[in-house]
Amino acid sequence: MYAVTSEPQRLADQAHEHWELNFENIGDPHQEISKACSAQGWLTLYANRGSLEFLQSGADWEIEHPKGFFQPGVLALTKEGRVLYRWRSVPSSENLNGTAMRPTPDYVWESIERMIAAGDAANDAFHDDNPVVDQRPPPRILFFAAIIANGWFVKPKSFMYAPGMKSIPARFKKAFSRWLLFLLFWTVAIVALPMGWVGGAFASWFVWIMFKLRRTIQDMDQQVELRAN
Known about the structure:
Layout: E1 2-5, H1 9-18, E2 24-27, H2 32-39, E3 46-48, H3 53-57, E4 69-70, E5 73-77, E6 83-88, H4 105-117, H5 140-150, H6 168-192, H7 195-221, E7 224-226
Parallel strand pairs: 1-2
Antiparallel strand pairs: 3-4, 3-7, 5-6
Helix pairs in contact: 5-6, 6-7
């Protein structure tokens, strides 16, 4: 079993150690493995070629994706190259552009077992377009509220992985708690300062954050393609 990432090998090694995985992690920033799988007709992944500004906002290292980053996929093969299972994430508004909704391990393994039981004469498995997924993502409006709060209301900030950080659900919860401080700040401002000043300041902030959020959404939505070569 192998995990392949579009990150450099050093980050793949960090994730392997942090998550205490018992299988090998491989960095494939130039997407050579992904292209080989596509050339064999096994699995062709979607890849993002857009701006990395939003992802970089939540990372404490320089994100390196010389050929973009590929979306998640799962591929299971026999030694002879027969496809036992294949799935790829299709970025959409439903899965927050590929951020969420992965097949559960139990479901994938059951699918593989059925194909093994079918014997070597069976055809390759079709793409699984409707797997049992781990969890549904939050509504987009809640996701946007979370990334705004994660950036302390100055700009949207991603929830990028880094060794030592808490889980993303825990960080989501912490980010949402900041909205209480945000509302308290504006409540105190309304009480202590002239309404015109407060209204003007809030309107300026709202225009600014909507501008930054719109740019973030455009970055997330743009330049997603099937990477076949």
